[in-house]
Amino acid sequence: MKHIPCIEDLREQARRNVPKMFFEYAEAGSYNQETLRANRADFEKLKLRQRILVNVDKRSTATTILGEPVSVPLALGPIGLGGMMHGDGEILACRAAQAMGIPYTLSTMSINSIEDVAAAVDKPFWFQLYVMRDRGFIKELIHRAAAAKCSALMLTVDLQVIGQRHNDIRNGLTVPPELKIRNIIDIMMRPAWALSILKGKRKTFGNLAGHVKDTSNINSLAKWTASQFDPTLNWKDVEWIKSIWPGKLILKGILDVDDARIAVSTGADAISVSNHGGRQLDGAPSAIASLPRIADAVGSEVEVMMDSGVRTGADMMRALALGARSCIIGRSYVYGLGAGGQAGVARAIEILKNELDITMALCGVNKVSEIDRNVLADTETQQRP
Ligand SMILES: Cc1cc2nc3c(=O)[nH]c(=O)nc-3n(C[C@H](O)[C@H](O)[C@H](O)COP(=O)(O)O)c2cc1C
Which of 163, 215, 254, 288 has a CA 20 to 30 Å removed from the CA of 52? Predict the structure, then answer.
């Protein structure tokens, strides 16, 4: 993996390894993909301030997230169907994150279950919760995460209904899945991927199978899931979840200052400024454009994280400059998983860490805690925000 220099090359490798229907599922944004594109475009618009002749010999990317030491202000976000990028994908991603000294978040919609991952690693990981209509199941799921010693619960608050991704329909990644001849041919042309999936512990949603009634096969399970995302979810439910979850609570999917203020009043430990990687409300602003106002409003009361669009260490620098304490990545490590399993995820983390380190040096910064808006350039086209 050492020969892969950047996330974009991991992406190209993943495109070659993973069947089209799963690669495009990971790539896509919802509807017209305006928000997906804005996530990248707005990062690239933010120019950094080059500083020279500062002694940067003793610099470090190390910091803390939710009080825990990390080697770089980065966490791996929850990825539904992560185990379709590579067999046992969630276990491998968690191992890579822990070896690199950063948190990993397991999705409710993962292939490996909470218990599978807990048995395969020796440090705590985070669990992401989608709230379903069946609150008995949700209560049990929260208890399972607590029993597995998950150190934080990440409640996703931007998916009461699901934004449509056109390619999933074109590719037959629907409920129930459509077995198209071209998908079968595509899979046959990717024997290494197929073998890794065959060797994987599970072939269905590991957190749901065996815990939900009358869902004996993947089709009935997928149907149950699709009917279970709960449009009634509201702030009162956050209180309920907080009352039964013993650990740290992160609310992921906040894009609005008013919502951020309410989030703080729930007593959440952290929020992630996020538009779900451009997969939910198309037409919403980018996460990086939404970040500064939210960080200004609540940054002293709650730990602010951000995700959606992070592909480089320079992006991390921009997010930290605008008030995030850490970044969460989705696709950047999903590409690593597709490109090379655990080694690919480790490489993705290493690439971002090295890029942040060099970016810090060239901006004349030694510590993560020194990064603020002064690292952004004041140019004719960009007033330092
Ligand atoms: C393939 C894929 C699956 C995802 N599944 C989940 C999920 O199960 N739960 C969740 O809260 N977010 C999910 N997300 C959103 C990510 O956690 C994260 O917010 C997003 O990927 C960040 O944007 P980025 O991919 O540009 O880094 C998913 C994203 C992708 C790309």
Answer: 288
